[in-house]
């Protein structure tokens, strides 16, 4: 199916969520390569809550002394070019921070990062991926350290991991890109409790922009909660104690687990290995949980201490033994998952600790009520809207003249915002982005003002940083045109039939078009040229009439003084 058909049928949220205040954008999550057709529409339908997404599309490989970033998206979606979902996400205003997993074997990545050359190879490959696709950053989900390599390797891996994160951070930040780390949980080392300390949160805190905590998979081998609230909160407490809370994202499980706890009878051969108390738990999508319970007449119980839902049911399996005899068994199964109430409880942790937000594995697994509950929390903690208006005394100046700037910062209800740090930013014609030139603070009236000298044509604006309490405030842009100052030099006299050497400099005047003009009742152009890189120019004007020549040089609305040359 063509992507245009997929996305033309998306239902975007309407005016119900278009009123002020807007909900705080606290929701983020992964869009796996194998579920783009489900996850991306879900993200778009909740775009009022989502600031950033992590396409789960890449894995790192290392072989033959070469680091490669493997594209998992394209083989899974051959009919939908990767450019199309990226364009869709960008058009929705989402920050795109793709995830890279560790696709190597046991200890391969750890050993690679243990050398300067290996870290450089990995950083270079990741940076190339980001810059070539104009991603906003990268998310590292290197889980082999935790779950494959074994904890006996952690002491060796940890210092090289820190060096790698620093090196990658420096490379990404030099390009204006973000570094996100996805990690299993840690707890305060002072407690002596289990945690995946190889990820060294405290040591990498200053290098990273996002920490996405996998506060799920608490219970795997035996029945229990996916991510109990107290456990979740304890790892959050540690995270916000060692880094700004705005960097921290709490993980939500969009899935549940379903364990077999008892089997009565002899199960058919085709399910005997999976329908057993010793077998791995089955998984189900959170949005299917209620139907699963209802299908077997089970009652869903909300466990208050864990802030998760659970239910028990019995399932009958009919079939044949390996010998071909008819057989049957009844399995008692216990399911745990995070329902809409659980989602709300974890969203409230965002408010309690002023976190960066929630991160869901994966977007599209949730049910509508869960998103409604998150939205209610996001609305209750919505940041104030900042309104800013820039005023100038002119938009066209002679070179060397000052411009007077002022700006007013208010809340949406027009209440002035006092003591607000703001930045004056400029962007010239060749600039890809805005650059800060000075910082100011609003007065009690919400105003800032200053006098400024500008040497080149450029646009200006005022901007205040976004905080937990307020959104970023960006004023209107004003384009300022600087008229060059043109100096002229010419001889006082020249013979009829000779040439007048007219020279000078325009400031600023690098490679600007200029005209030589003569006055004979009115000014008329007699020659054209372009200044050099230093703004200098030279005209050689042939004199064919006298008794004098009145000359000047112009560029746009700027003109030099007039000079009079006597013709002998």
Please provide a written account of the structure.
It is built from 13 helices and 33 strands. The protein is of the alpha/beta class. The chain has 4 domains: 3-253 and 338-380, Glycosidases (TIM Barrel, Alpha-Beta Barrel), CATH 3.20.20; 255-337, Chitinase A, domain 3 (Roll), CATH 3.10.50; 386-482, Sandwich (Immunoglobulin-like), CATH 2.60.40.1930; 484-567, SOR catalytic domain (Immunoglobulin-like), CATH 2.60.40.730. The strands form 6 sheets. An 8-stranded parallel barrel has the order 1-2-5-6-7-8-9-15, surrounded by 4 helices. Strands 17, 19, 20, 22, 23 and 24 form a 6-stranded mixed sheet that branches. Strands 26, 28, 29, 31, 32 and 33 form a 6-stranded mixed sheet that branches. The N and C termini lie far apart (84 Å).
Give structural attributes.
Chitinase A, domain 3; disordered N terminus; 33 strands; alpha/beta; 568 residues; six-stranded mixed sheet; Immunoglobulin-like; eight-stranded parallel β-barrel; 4 domains; 23% helix; TIM Barrel; 13 helices; 37% strand
């Amino acid at each position: 199916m063509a992507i245009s058909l997929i996305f033309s049928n998306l239902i975007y949220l309407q005016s119900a969520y278009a009123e002020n205040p807007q909900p705080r954008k606290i929701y983020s999550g992964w869009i796996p390569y194998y579920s783009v057709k489900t996850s991306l529409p879900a993200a778009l339908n909740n775009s009022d809550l989502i600031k950033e997404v992590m396409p789960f599309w890449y894995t790192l490989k290392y072989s033959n002394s070469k680091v490669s970033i493997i594209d998992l998206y394209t083989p899974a979606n051959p009919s939908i070019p990767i450019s199309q979902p990226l364009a869709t996400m960008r058009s929705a205003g989402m920050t795109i921070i793709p995830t890279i997993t560790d696709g190597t074997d046991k200890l391969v990545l750890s050993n690679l990062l243990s050398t300067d050359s290996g870290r450089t190879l990995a950083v270079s490959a990741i940076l190339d991926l980001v810059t070539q696709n104009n991603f906003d950053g990268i998310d590292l989900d290197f889980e082999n350290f935790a779950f494959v390599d074994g904890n006996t390797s952690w002491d060796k891996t940890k210092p090289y991991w820190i060096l790698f994160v620093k090196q990658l951070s420096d490379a990404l930040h030099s390009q204006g890109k973000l570094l996100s780390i996805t990690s299993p949980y840690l707890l305060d080392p002072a407690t002596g409790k289990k945690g995946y300390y190889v990820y060294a949160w405290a040591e990498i805190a200053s290098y990273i922009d996002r920490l996405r905590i996998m506060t799920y998979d608490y219970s795997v081998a035996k029945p229990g909660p996916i991510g109990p609230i107290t456990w979740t909160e304890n790892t959050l407490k540690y995270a916000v104690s060692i880094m700004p809370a705005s960097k921290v994202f709490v993980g939500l499980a969009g899935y549940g687990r379903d364990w077999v706890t008892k089997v009565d009878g002899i199960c058919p051969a085709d399910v005997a290995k999976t329908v057993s108390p010793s077998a791995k738990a089955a998984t189900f999508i959170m949005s299917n949980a209620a139907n699963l319970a209802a299908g077997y007449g089970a009652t869903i119980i909300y466990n208050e201490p864990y802030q998760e839902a659970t239910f028990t049911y019995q399932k009958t399996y009919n079939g044949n033994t390996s010998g071909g005899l008819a057989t049957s068994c009844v399995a008692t199964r216990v399911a745990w998952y995070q329902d809409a109430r659980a989602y709300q409880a974890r969203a409230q942790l965002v408010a309690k600790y002023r976190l960066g937000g929630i991160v869901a594995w994966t977007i599209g697994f949730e049910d509508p009520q869960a998103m409604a509950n998150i939205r209610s929390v996001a609305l209750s903690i919505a940041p104030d809207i900042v309104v800013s208006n820039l005023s100038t005394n002119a938009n066209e100046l002679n070179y060397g003249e000052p411009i007077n700037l002022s700006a007013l910062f208010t809340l949406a209800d027009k209440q002035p915002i006092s003591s607000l740090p703001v930045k004056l930013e400029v962007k010239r014609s060749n600039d890809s982005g805005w650059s800060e030139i000075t910082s100011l603070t609003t007065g009690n009236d919400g105003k800032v003002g200053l006098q400024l000298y500008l040497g080149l044509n450029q646009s200006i604006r005022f901007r205040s940083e976004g905080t937990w309490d307020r959104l970023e405030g960006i004023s209107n842009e004003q384009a300022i045109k600087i008229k060059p100052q043109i100096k002229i030099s010419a001889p006082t006299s020249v013979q009829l039939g000779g040439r007048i050497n007219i020279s000078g400099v325009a400031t600023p005047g690098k490679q600007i078009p200029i005209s030589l003009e003569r006055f004979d009742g009115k000014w008329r152009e007699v020659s054209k040229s372009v200044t050099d890189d230093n703004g200098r120019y030279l005209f050689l004007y042939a004199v064919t009439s006298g008794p004098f020549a009145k000359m000047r040089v112009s560029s746009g609305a700027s003109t030099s003084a007039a000079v009079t040359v006597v013709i002998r």
